[in-house]
């Protein structure tokens, strides 16, 4: 682990095949419950010479983001068949002039990955004048606890084992620099067209549904892990400040299940990707931009 906060360097050398070139890579990630970070880590371990950088590290600044790497990846969850708001804003700021190969891995609980990848491709083509060379959607345990309980036990383990196999194959394709046509689904496009604009227009205030119960032990995990910096501890209790991404991390990561979003979430299965610790989840919320992936241009609009 690199000593710089929020940044991890995976130093495992990739097994280079005849047509494989070991390139310097960076994977930017956004995660609520760890699936997308776990996916980024697995691919990074296979690629070698890869930095893993939280998208949240850039949230409080403005200006272009110039990755110092030949191969650039973006890993994040699918929200309402589209991108998390923070990932979309991040993509709009990327300067990919130096990148030889750009890929994305989106994780989802059942569908919509193709529409999210196409959204990202469109943003990059528009803002960075080059789209994705490859995009992959990986099915993992769903975490939208406001609507359903996350899978547990054998079902969860089966899903994660299948995701691991998918990620291994995906890493091989990325190592070989394969150009991959993005998946396309008219159903996902339709669902996105109906659901996503509403999600984006309301997302920041969705935390108004959140409450904290007497079970709270004032441990501060929810505040420390929030990728949006949206939670303040006041009098030993979390207070939400309406800059929410709806990642559901605070609800899932609370060790005593003290956070609810109405009656529906009471007793619902919580989830954290089992390959990650709470400390991993807290690391993305610290916001020092990485020195090699400098933010350039005007800071904070000045
Ligand atoms: C607000 C929200 C919306 C979601 N929308 C979708 C969706 O449209 N399709 C889907 O398959 N999964 C959806 N999910 C599930 C996540 O995409 C999935 O669990 C993902 O792997 C979580 O990644 P993370 O652990 O990195 O946060 C949604 C989750 C949240 C919190
Ligand atoms: S307040 Fe909770 S749901 Fe909203 S961004 Fe922070 S951790 Fe995610
Ligand atoms: S994570 Fe749970 S117990 Fe800890 S401060 Fe937040 S609400 Fe309280």
The largest sheet is: 6 strands, mixed
The SSE order reads EEHEEEHEHEHHEHEEHEHE
How many β strands by DSSP? 12
DSSP helical segment count: 8
| CATH fold name of the largest domain | Rossmann fold
CA radius of gyration is 18 Å
Task: Provide the residue-averaged pLDDT.
Answer: 90
Coarse shape: globular
Spatial separation of the terminal alpha carbons: 34 Å
General description of the model:
It contains eight helices and twelve strands. The protein starts with 7 loop residues before the first strand and ends in a 6-residue tail after the last strand. It is of the alpha/beta class and 302 residues long. The longest helix is centred in the middle third of the chain and has 23 residues, at 153-175. The chain folds into two domains: 8-191, 3-Layer(aba) Sandwich (Rossmann fold), CATH 3.40.50; 204-281, Alpha-Beta Plaits (2-Layer Sandwich). The protein has a six-stranded mixed beta sheet with strand order 1-3-2-5-6-7, with helices on both faces. Strands 4-12 form a two-stranded antiparallel sheet. The structure holds flavin mononucleotide and iron/sulfur cluster (2 copies). One iron/sulfur cluster binds at residues 212, 216-222, 238, 254, 256, 258-259.
Summarize the structure.
With 302 residues, this protein is an alpha/beta fold. 30% of the residues lie in helices and 17% in strands.
Provide key terms for this protein.
binds iron/sulfur cluster, 17% strand, 8 helices, 2 domains, alpha/beta, 6-stranded mixed β-sheet, two-stranded antiparallel sheet, Alpha-Beta Plaits, 302 residues, binds flavin mononucleotide, Rossmann fold, disordered C terminus, 12 strands
């Amino acid at each position: 682990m690199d000593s710089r906060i929020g940044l991890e360097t995976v130093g495992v050398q990739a097994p280079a095949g005849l047509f494989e070139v070991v390139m310097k890579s960076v994977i930017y990630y956004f995660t609520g419950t760890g699936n997308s970070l776990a996916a980024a880590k697995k691919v990074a371990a296979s690629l070698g010479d890869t930095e893993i950088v939280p998208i949240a590290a850039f949230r409080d600044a403005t200006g272009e983001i110039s990755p110092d790497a030949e191969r650039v990846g973006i890993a994040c969850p699918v929200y309402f068949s589209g991108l998390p708001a923070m990932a979309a804003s991040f993509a709009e700021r990327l300067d990919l002039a130096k990148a030889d190969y750009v890929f994305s891995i989106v994780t989802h609980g059942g569908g919509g990955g193709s529409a999210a990848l196409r959204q990202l491709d469109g943003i990059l083509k528009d803002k960075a004048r080059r789209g994705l060379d490859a995009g992959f959607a990986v099915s993992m345990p769903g975490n939208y606890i406001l609507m359903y309980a996350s899978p547990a036990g054998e079902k969860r383990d089966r899903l994660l084992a299948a995701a691991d196999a998918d990620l291994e194959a995906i890493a091989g394709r990325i190592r070989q620099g394969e150009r991959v046509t993005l998946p396309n689904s008219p159903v996902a496009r339709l669902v996105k067209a109906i659901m996503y604009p509403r999600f984006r227009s309301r997302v920041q205030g969705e935390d108004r549904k959140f409450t904290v119960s007497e079970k709270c032990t004032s441990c501060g995990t929810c505040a420390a892990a929030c990728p949006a910096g949206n939670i303040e501890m006041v009098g030993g209790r979390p207070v939400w400040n309406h800059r929410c991404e709806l990642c559901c991390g605070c609800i899932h990561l609370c060790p005593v299940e003290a956070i609810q979003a109405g009656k529906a979430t009471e007793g619902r299965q919580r989830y954290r990707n089992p390959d990650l610790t709470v400390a991993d989840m807290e690391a993305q919320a610290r916001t020092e931009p990485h020195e090699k992936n400098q933010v350039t241009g005007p800071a904070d609009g000045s």
